[in-house]
Give the backbone structure.
Amino acid sequence: MRQWLRGSLLVLCTLVATVGQAEEADSVVLIANPSVQRTTLSLEMVRAIFAMRQRTLPSGQAIHVFVLPDDAALHEAFAKRVLGVFPHQLRLAWDRAVFSGTGQAPNQVADGAAMLRAVASTPGSIGYLNPSSLSSQVQVLDID
Amino acid sequence: MNTLQVHGFLSQALIVSDHNDFFGPSSEGGGSWEYTELGLNASFRPFDNVLVAGQVLARQAGDIQRLDEVELDYGVIDYQFFNDVETTAGVQLGRFKNPLGLYNQTRDIPITRPSILLPQSIYFDRTRQPALAADGATGYVERLLDDGVLRLQLGAGKPRMDEQSEISAFGRDDLGHYAGDSSFIGQLRYEQSGGRLIYALTYADVNAGLNANADGPGDGNFSFQPWILSFQYNREAWSFTTEYAIRRVRSSGFDDRYNYDFTGESWYVQLTRRLDDDWQWLLRYDSLTTDRSDPSGHDYASRTGLPAFTRYAKDWTVGLQWQPLSRLLVAAELHNVEGTGWLPYQDSSELRTQEKYWNMLLFQLSYSF
């Protein structure tokens, strides 16, 4: 009986840990290169930046947008939970910008590690990351 | 950072109809392969707030346009000269795409369309060329609100005319030299909650002039003034779209035969449903009335002897899109149409041989990068 209890407890702990990790896995924050002076952006400005309609920050600094592939879980989490739009809407907005001469496509990187490298090394860059992948080379921006 | 980007697309369609030809001999034998689109664009940002972008386009659309007639689709310098916490303003100089309704700016790019053919009552292929782009300047102001974006765009320039738009205006293309005059466009657009709800109001005043040949109908002007109301509601798995247009079409200064003034009406309702990331279907009803004061075309028929059904079109469309790879699109759609009001033609004699009821099946393969 004690053996069984201990076993159940172990399973339960593993389950809790797994669920915790699952939540952790698609939690996402907006990040920027340390050269970006503004630390809080409005939701609408973040939407305009990621829809590739706004090319500079109010300070005049050029923005460079970095994203993960459309089917990356973190991209979907960022689009839906942070921007409140669906990944296919973002893709359509980029295609419309690119093929009408009104904007460019964002820079796509393969994974979180590449995202961290790109945003850390590109002045004026903006992207997103899982909080567990953060380093001091990038700053986290607040959205109000 | 190097900001140069190069993108492009290509598409090929097969069109099969039971009666009436659309983009080539679609009603004969194995159908028509004469609908091909190729585009290549490049853009870069030489300064922080300046974008330079251009696209060349080659397009085969039956006899309307040939693949070897490569054209500059757009070529702009976009200068975003004002930007604060709530407002962005900019100007585009050059050949800019007209923001006419929801789809016009990227009407030739399959991946941005919900169907192979856009609703023809508003996005006529007959008058594609002048609707597409203008040579001039356009300014835009975008204002960020609490949970939405308000965008105003105003443009002035000269539209480009071609044989098909001349035929559309006068029924033939051999009357003289036909060219665009000063024209204007304005669009007010509101997008709520990141584009969940989109509302737009467009107005345009498109003008052209004809310098007639000696034996022609005299010099005169053509004008086209559409108002378009647009609405779209987007959910994760489906979108509902509707647009309504009222279009005044006028030609003046000619012999009586070529002068006219009437107002047309167009509208469609469209539902698209995403089945998963790769599959989407569409259902649409699209209605065109060439002249609101004569919706059945009977007055026109008794005046000209041409069939009444050439003055309207009612089109039911069902479509399917499949994206086996992220940039590869396979599409099929079926149109069941009454009337030929938007069907392109080369010579008005074709109007006598058109059929009132017709069906059209289209397949299209496209790739973009």
Notes: The first strand of chain A starts at residue 29 and ends at 32. Confidence is low (pLDDT under 50) at residues 18-23 of chain A.
